[in-house]
Amino acid sequence: MVLPEATAWAFADLDLVSRVLWRRGAAADVADRYRGCAGLRGPRVQALEREVLRIIGWDLFDRPRAGQELGDGLVEMQVDNPDGTTDRWRAAVTPGRILPVPDCMHPIGEAKKSETEWVVRDFSLVSPP
Fold it and tell me: Can you tell me the distance from the alpha carbon of 99 to that of 116, in angstroms, rounded to the nearest whole number?
């Protein structure tokens, strides 16, 4: 987890930590390892945020943003722009695979917990109101 942004990352190694902390290279190159901002409402919104990160890049973490589930798997995120406008991003976010979550220092085969992998489809920028 990176503070104060409250962004969570998976499979962190020295290269990823360096890239994230210094915002080195394209954010899209490491977006697959991004798990979302802890300040957002739930894993579906965080999955949509990952796709927005691929488009906006590192600057996303400097912008106010919020998201919500609209029902029937539809999720929307609002991202404030430096010029004072707000972009709205929308996607269908549906459950994918169920993956085991290992306990620290234990093999994956001994996992007692699992998590849903969220699949983002029909991702688009919605025109501002």
Answer: 6
pTM to 2 decimal places: 0.91
Return the residue matching tokens 């499979």: 11
d(CA 3, CA 16): 15
Average pLDDT of 36-47? 97
Half-sphere exposure of 30 (CA within 13 A, CB side): 25
Q: Which residues contact 27 (CB under 8 A, 6 or more apart)?
A: 53, 54, 56, 57, 58, 60
Under the banding of pLDDT at 50, 70 and 90, the label for residue 12 is very high
**Two structure tokens written together for 94:** 């549906």
CA 15 – CA 121 distance, rounded (Å): 29
Would you kindly state where each structural domain of the chain is located, as residue ranges? 7-126
Say which residue the tokens 């998590």 belong to. 115
Query: pLDDT tens across 45-102, in order?
Result: 999 999 999 999 999 999 999 999 999 999 999 999 999 999 999 999 999 999 998 8
Q: Judge whether 53 and 27 are in contact, CB under 8 Å.
A: yes
